[in-house]
Amino acid sequence: MGSLGLALPVGPTSPVFRRRSPRPYRMNNFGGVDWASMQPRLFFVSKVLLVVLLTAICMRALRQSPSFTGLSKFATHERGVTHVLVTGGAGFIGSHAALRLLEDGHRVTIVDNLSRGNMGAVEQLQALFPEPGRLQFIYCDLGDSKRVNEIFKENAIDAVMHFAAIAYVSESMVDPLRYYHNITFNTLTVLEAMKTYGVKKLIYSSTCATYGEPEMMPITETTPQVPINPYGKAKKMSEDLIQDFAKNSDFSVMILRYFNVIGSDPKGRLGEAPRPELRKHARISGACFDAAMGIIPGIQVRGSDYNTTDGTCIRDYIHVTDLVDAHVKALEKAKRAEVSVYNVGTGKGSSVKEFVEACKFATGVNVTVTILDRRPGDYAEVYSDPSKIRRELNWVAQHLDLESSLSDAWRWRKQHPNGYSVAMI
Ligand SMILES: NC(=O)c1ccc[n+]([C@@H]2O[C@H](COP(=O)([O-])OP(=O)(O)OC[C@H]3O[C@@H](n4cnc5c(N)ncnc54)[C@H](O)[C@@H]3O)[C@@H](O)[C@H]2O)c1
């Protein structure tokens, strides 16, 4: 009171103590109830009853809603809907895969620690698929096995697409333990959680880096795997542990060994936005675009004395949309108690020099090129034989023109010079 500067008198006669005495029901001359005087009370009672009724209706509706019972759509299996856990779904390939799965009517849970991916990609997907039960994002580091297990416990997952990984060959040469932990250890964690919670379908992101530098080209799935850098070795170890586990289980596993992934969603909804701090490890398309935008002075080509047609390395460049299509086919055709391995590439090699020319065409910028020494851990020539995936999954790469694939990626990049943070349309 004092704080308000008011001094109210307190005592039996003060307004604080004074109370209106309740008005008794008046009896009329015939000894009956005076209904007129009862009207306010009846009105009050009916109002209370109405509130009670409405509350009961709301409670019943709430009880039946999945969120009240803790059973969100993500926590219940639904006939005809495949709930796919996409690890690394905030990253380049994972976000494109999530987009395709959502377009196909699947339910998607993205798990990512955002160490390399972009929340902007997830927000874009959420904007495209805002309906309840379509897409949820869970922030989690796969190294946290307790949290990973909780995610499997709380969600009714039908299949896992395991993209999450750090994935730069040169970085793996400098910091190998980080790679073994992030790739091999985390795959083991995911696999153990799948086993515990009975999730029996896995599509695993592997890489042509597991083959090392084979003597024979093209690379088939039976080409011996002799990786020569920690990134390739960590992926090969993950493949091995998946294979060993699956031998005595009824798991359906598809191991996809990607070649070099380029391009972006042709409709411009998603793109590739690596972190600026990773520029020094950048993949060739990122470096070309950075050079075309004037962010870096030019492109550095590492090695022009390889035993190839023009002395630069040869790679097999696969459009991300084609790659994602291979995942969808793998998901559809995964067979119980079987592990299948597929190369996902175009079957056609292009030299770094050809790639740079295609990049110049796509960007319209005559980027400066500097030739440097070879990069440790690089292989001269790598291209796939994709006949197995064509035969068994009916998958064929559709985007074979480098200039057109790079044009898709450049369009998005030009409109998003700062990645997902700012769009300039
Ligand atoms: N890009 C290529 O050319 C290529 C080629 C062959 C294989 N791959 C494989 O494809 C997969 C995806 O590659 P990308 O190019 O999209 O990479 P990316 O860096 O764009 O995406 C990887 C995602 O995984 C997340 N991640 C990393 N470690 C995590 C952890 N411990 N917990 C949770 N999330 C984590 C990152 O934040 C990121 O969003 C990787 O497994 C990679 O090895 C890529």
UniProtKB/TrEMBL annotation:
What's an example GO BP annotation here?
Answer: galactose metabolic process
Which Gene3D superfamilies does this UniProt record tie to the protein? NAD(P)-binding Rossmann-like Domain (3.40.50.720), UDP-galactose 4-epimerase, domain 1 (3.90.25.10)
* GO molecular function (one): UDP-glucose 4-epimerase activity
Describe the location of the NAD-dependent epimerase/dehydratase domain by residue ranges. Answer: 84-345
Q: Name one Pfam family in it.
A: Epimerase
Q: Which domain of life is it from?
A: Eukaryota
Q: Which UniProt keywords apply?
A: Isomerase, NAD
Record's CDD domains? Answer: UDP_G4E_1_SDR_e
The cofactor required is:
NAD(+)
Q: What family name appears in the similarity comment?
A: Belongs to the NAD(P)-dependent epimerase/dehydratase family.
**Name of the molecule in the record:** NAD-dependent epimerase/dehydratase domain-containing protein
Q: State the species of origin.
A: Physcomitrium patens
Q: What is the gene called?
A: LOC112291599
